[in-house]
Design a protein that fits this description.
about 230 residues, mainly beta
C-alpha cells in the first residue's frame, strides 16, 4: 500500500511594499507504520502570529490513524522552535533535510492513551511521552508551486492585498517516535513552504493558519483532520 505524506516549510522573506507584513508558517508531516502495521503520523507546525508576528512551534504525533490495537497513543503540545532545524530552498535540489528532535515529557505537552474508531480517539487517559526524532529528506520525484492573490476594495479603490505562494516537493521521512523505529518505505512525503504577504488593509480571517497549510492538512485524510481539530480548537 502506498501512502502520501506531507511536509511543509515556509521561509521568512522580506518583501517591499507600504504597510506590508509577511507571515510564514512551517508544517512538517508524514504518515508512518509501527512494527505491527498500525498507521500513525508526525506533524510539526510553526505558526506566525498575525498580530505580533512572533512564531511558535507545536508538535502532534499519533499511532491511532488506523489500528487494530485496543489502545493507541497520541500527543500534542508546544515545543521549542529550535527543535525543528534545516532549510528547504525553492528549487529542485534534493540536498535538503529537515530534522525534528523533541521531548514530549515537558510541561504543557499532552501525552495520552486512547481507544480509536476510524482514526477518531475517545476515552483518553494520561500517558508517558518520550523523544520524537525524525528527518525529512527532500527527493526529486515531483515539485509544484501554488499561488493565490486576494484584493480588497472600498469605493472602487484597492485598500489591501494578500499574496500567497506555496512550493511543494517530494520527500521521505525516517526516524523514531517514543522509541519506535518507523516503517516508511512505502510512504512518499511532501516538503513545501509558504509565505503570505499582506499589504494595506487585511480582510478578517476565520483562522490564523495560512491557506497553504490548511489545504495540505485537509488532503491528508484522517491524519490531517486530527491535527486540524487540535489547531482550530
Amino acid at each position: 500500500m502506498k501512502l502520501i505524506a506531507f511536509v511543509m516549510l515556509f521561509p521568512l522573506t522580506a518583501l517591499a511594499g507600504p504597510a506590508s507584513n509577511v507571515r510564514t508558517n512551517t508544517l512538517a508531516s508524514s504518515l508512518m507504520f509501527d512494527a505491527n502495521g498500525n498507521t500513525g503520523f508526525v506533524t510539526v507546525i510553526r505558526q506566525t502570529d498575525p498580530t505580533t508576528l512572533v512564531s511558535s512551534t507545536s508538535l502532534f504525533y499519533s499511532f491511532c490513524v488506523q489500528t487494530t490495537a485496543a489502545l493507541c497513543q497520541q500527543g500534542n503540545g508546544v515545543i521549542s522552535d529550535a527543535a525543528l532545524r534545516g532549510e528547504i530552498n525553492g528549487n529542485s535540489s534534493p540536498n535538503n533535510v529537515l530534522t525534528l528532535v523533541a521531548d514530549t515529557n515537558v510541561v504543557g505537552f499532552t501525552n495520552e492513551i486512547c481507544q480509536s474508531d476510524g482514526g477518531f480517539t475517545f476515552n483518553c487517559m494520561p500517558a508517558t511521552g518520550g523523544i520524537v526524532s525524525v528527518a525529512f529528506a527532500k527527493t526529486n520525484a515531483f515539485d509544484e508551486t501554488i499561488e493565490g492573490t486576494d484584493l480588497i476594495r472600498r469605493d472602487h479603490k484597492k485598500t489591501g492585498s494578500r499574496f500567497d505562494t506555496t512550493h511543494q516537493f517530494s520527500c521521505h521521512m525516517t526516524g523514531t517516535v517514543l522509541g519506535v523505529t518507523l516503517n516508511t518505505q512505502s510512504i512518499t512525503g511532501t516538503i513545501s513552504f509558504e509565505t503570505l504577504q499582506q499589504n494595506g488593509e487585511d480582510a478578517p480571517q476565520a483562522q490564523t493558519m495560512l491557506p497553504g497549510i490548511s489545504r495540505v492538512l485537509l488532503s491528508q485524510g484522517r491524519a490531517g483532520q486530527a491535527v486540524l481539530r487540535q489547531v482550530l480548537k
